[in-house]
Amino acid sequence: MDKGNDAEPAAAIVEIRAVNKEYALGKQSVIALRNISLMIDKGEFMALAGPSGSGKSTLLNLIGCIDTPTSGSILIQGQDISGKTADELADLRLKTLGFVFQTFNLLPVLSAWENVEYPLLQRRDMEKKTRQERVRHYLNIVGLERYTHHRPNELSGGQRQRVAIARALATHPGIVLADEPTANLDHKTGEGILKLMKALNQEEGTTFIFSTHDAQVMEMADRVIKLADGQIIE
Ligand SMILES: Nc1ncnc2c1ncn2[C@@H]1O[C@H](COP(=O)(O)OP(=O)(O)OP(=O)(O)O)[C@@H](O)[C@H]1O
């Protein structure tokens, strides 16, 4: 009987195979990632840790299909993304990936409701009623049901990050990528955001991959991958 890997379902939601990333900086080149190989399972709550410049954002950008590796390959839900067109990658980002950023990246002229609704408007096949229920559901989950009409500048940092989390989850992505999601929040608020992410990971089974400097944030992860100078050291 064939017991090879081909016969088994792929457990990894993200697979990174021997990835290198080099940036050209004028005539010089900067090696941001060196020979990274990593399997991330569905439902993981995983932290990327490491000092500034160690390659955390670069790795998140590659997994998020925002940037491409110089060599090596990345598989998302078993599909190699290197052969995909820009349109196919945009579709993958919209359907499979949710993003949470350090600086929240909300659209300032839109209300909390409209910010969460925004990515759903690109789903042409989604009915208005379904869309509105989604927005209401995720704003309730992050505890912002009373702030739906507020614009980002009328919200606190923690509330803004809650809007960003609701926006990331509203499209029902399999994976949420969060680049230093607590870096611009005070410690208590940051802890609340992490607890919220962890609860959503457990309740909805969403895979979370986040970068952090904060040791207490790392403690909440199922697994911590440490990077230094573009390499996995632990
Ligand atoms: N667009 C770019 N052009 C040139 N070099 C870059 C670019 N982006 C990142 N780098 C370099 O790649 C390396 C890794 O950067 P990266 O932003 O991934 O680190 P990081 O661990 O996320 O740091 P931080 O915690 O400060 O955000 C650094 O040396 C950085 O200067």
From TrEMBL:
GO terms under biological process: response to antibiotic
GO terms assigned for molecular function: ATP binding; ATP hydrolysis activity; transmembrane transporter activity
GO cellular component terms attached to this protein's record: membrane protein complex; plasma membrane
InterPro entries associated with the record: AAA+_ATPase (IPR003593), ABC_transporter-like_ATP-bd (IPR003439), ABC_transporter-like_CS (IPR017871), ABC_transpr_LolD-like (IPR015854), MacB-like_ATP-bd (IPR017911), P-loop_NTPase (IPR027417)
ATP-binding recorded as keyword: yes
Lipoprotein found in the keyword field: no
Entry superkingdom: Bacteria
Domain ABC transporter: 16-234
Pfam families on file: ABC_tran
Family stated for the protein in its record: Belongs to the ABC transporter superfamily. Macrolide exporter (TC 3.A.1.122) family.
Protein name: ABC transporter
Biological source species: Nitrosospira lacus
